[in-house]
Amino acid sequence: MNRLTPLKERHLLRNQEEYQVKYNYLKFPSPKEAATAMQDRKTILSTLESRVKWGFHNSKVDVTKLSKGCQLCGEGQWSCLFINNLCNGKCFYCPTQQNDLAQPETNTLIFEEPQTYVDYIRKFGFKGVSISGGEPLISFDKSLAFVKAVKDAFGDEVYVWLYTNGILLTPEKVEAFKQAGLNEMRFDIGATEYKTDKLQLALGQIPVVTVEIPAVPQEEELLKEKIRELSALGVNHLNFHQMRLTPYNFNQLVEHDYTYIHGEKVTVMDSELTALRLIQFALDEGLDLPINYCSFVYKNRHQKSANRKKHAPLVRYPWEEVTENGFIRNVYTRLPRERQGEVLNLFEDELAKGWVIFNEKTSRMDFHSELFKRFVALELPLWVEYHVSHIFPQETGINDFTRILLNDEREVVVERRLANLPIELDDEKRKFFLSLLNQDVQYKESEDSKIQQIMTYEFIPEGLGDYY
Questions:
Q1: Integer distance in angstroms from the first to the last C-alpha of the chain?
Q2: Cis peptide leading into 62, omega within 30 of 0?
Q3: DSSP state of 244
Q4: Closest CA relative to residue 433, chosen from 340, 330, 351
Q5: DSSP codes of every residue in 50-95
Q6: Which of 80, 109, 191, 269 could form a disulfide with 261 if both were Cys (CB 3.0 to 4.6 A apart)?
Q7: Coil, strand or helix: which one is 40?
Q8: Quick one: pLDDT at residue 95?
């Protein structure tokens, strides 16, 4: 049996912890089966290589003709407003419970009326807004009001799309969204047994019509027929998601003979292979329908990283830097009393411009990573730690934060919290860290758990996830 890296072992243990005794009902591949499936995927990808374009650290294919909404999502310029948490569909693959009308919410922030949400979009500089749920058409008037408010405020500067299963869609509602300026409507036709009558109401009325569905393995042949149909209808985009397991959909998914794989969450291996085969099918058929595979690793890596990067600059100190993965990097040392005067004199200019800060009470000196070489030469103990930013409706009273005033009546706060225990940098890790700062290091899983932590906080990994 192949030995798992510390990172993979940690993911496996977390997944076991999440599902407890239910974990034993899941079928995971043996090392041999995983290797065979990885080879199958490699074979499919080799047939796609010259015909598609990969994006977002090679975690998303095909980005050749990606919808503007998907592009903004990957760039972190998108706010998803969950207009409610109530749905009239009964999709067996749905990952969350949808039984609460709720208030419009995004990122823990509730927006009861559209204007404050407009102020939020303006303050944080978003270029895209999606209206989601639940099912937005259950709250049609509210969904329309938010679309209209955003488009009235920003016009073409903000791209707006809406997710729906289409069950409640009527020509009158399409016309209302058209007049409000909706740019794109996305349909989960999996909720309606893949019927296309409702999406046809939007074709020719809403500028962009997209179908966004999970790649369901047992429906692969049906999906091939649907790809032909959607192409003939003139649908602009087709997005396939990778199915993932959650405690909510567990009982529904285990009824099917799926093979699951580990990662930050448990996902369906067969779903990824199905999506890639369907992209290959459409290309082989010469169908004029751009298909985008939205892998779980893309969502988990890029959407989260983009969210962190949006807020991190607001709570970053001058001596800190934001990493590629959106974490705030902080490097520091502790000065022996007998060396404090010497070191303070050496960094007098950097202290003045805020690249170094010294706390006399704790003897801790934090400094910008561009000064790392100089501190190494001083043969002082060195540590690195990472912080992560979060947005909240009000401060928790635990962490440092920055208040953001949206308007005269509403504010939010961005907090920073420690993401890891400080990592002491011994000789080996100092050499590694210097290489990292010199951009001579690329992400790869490490057998050293501390170096793996640094890798995780610094980089977004390349490619699709491994099977194990």
A1: 11
A2: yes
A3: B
A4: 330
A5: TT--EETTTTEE--TT--HHHHHHHHT-EEEEE--EE-S---TT--
A6: 269
A7: helix
A8: 94
